[in-house]
Amino acid sequence: MTSEAVTAATPSARPATPRRPLGQLLSVRNIGAIYVWIAIIVLFSLIASETFPTAQTAKAILNQYSITGIVALSLVIPLAAGFYDLSIGYTLGLAGILAAYLLENTGMSPLAAGAITIAACVVIGLFNALVVVGFGINSFIGTLGTGAVLAAITLAISNDQTITGRIGEDFAKIASTSWEGLTLPVLYLLAIVVGLWWWLERTRMGRNFYAMGFEREAARLSGVKIDRLGTIAFVTSAVIAGFAGMVLAGRVSSASPSVGPAYLIPAFSAAFLGATQLRQGRFNAWGTVIAVLLLGTGNVGLLLAGGPAWTPQLFEGLVLIAAVGLTVSGNEGLRGKIANAWRRARERGSGAEAGDAERHAG
After folding, report:
1. pTM confidence score
2. DSSP 178
3. Which class is 22-328 in CATH?
4. How far is residue 249's CA from residue 154's CA, in Å, rounded to a whole number?
5. What is d(CA 358, CA 362) in angstroms, rounded to the nearest whole number?
6. Contact of 249 with 124, CB cutoff 8 Å
7. Closest CA to 250 of 296, 189, 185
8. What does the alpha-carbon distance between residue 85 and residue 98 come to, in Å, rounded to a whole number?
9. Which residue from 21, 58, 182, 233 lies 20 to 30 Å from 156 (Cα-Cα)?
10. Cross-strand bridge partners of residue 178
11. Measured between alpha carbons, how far is 231 from 210 in angstroms, rounded to an integer?
């Protein structure tokens, strides 16, 4: 197996640290995205004062971006372990189509269709693990290839047509049921983020995921079963993404074969931006959710402020670039890298001046 993965952008695996003082916890470096989020809220509250700063808008953001958050969380485990998974969008699309097809054409109950769909997602995860962990193919290339295969299967099942019909009756409740204006996907998001947080931060397996992401060969030599953990990471990613696909199908009462890839960029943007928050340099669940809320607030704010329809995509792309840049900068931080580069340049300049002075003195 190759030691590739998220080399430049992989967060370091650090041992548990003692409790940090309040000032450090509230620092810009630790929760900078929250301050940016607050600034975005204030900005759009001033620009779109009649429509943006309302409880209805807040609930709409949570409801609309809960599925994006679930998809983003599907990336946390493989990224923490040092793998990309570019097949998540296609897994989402296939899961929605498969569940809809089973409901529409076989008369299955929603529970049976959901179970078969989740089983198919497990197979997808195992296939990714075979390609990347077993054959040693770069995870970026391997999972991109898997995505192409899944796209073909999705088109074959759906005949490149949106599936409607019984799915609207049978699957709607898993997404449309609401309480006080908040739909069930918001609760799913909360449950998944708590589960992933506990898994990564409170278990030995979670620490081993981080160890793999930091230095795979060193983790192997220390006794970490990296092949097994890599397989678990890909299966987890596929199952969560597939679950998001079924929830999406229930929300819109249909399944489109082309819907999945649209979730790829916002999911990666949130995952990488989340790695700069709370656990600096680590892909983590709560940081990812904070990033999703920032993205959702910015996108909705741009539209309510009268921005063109393409502005959310521009916003997500810029956030992805900035997030990857901040993550690549690692624990040192972007400002630290710039400061250190400036200091080294000054030291080289001082050294050159000293050399010139010695030559003149000679």
Report:
1. 0.83
2. E
3. mainly alpha
4. 14
5. 6
6. no
7. 185
8. 21
9. 233
10. 183
11. 15
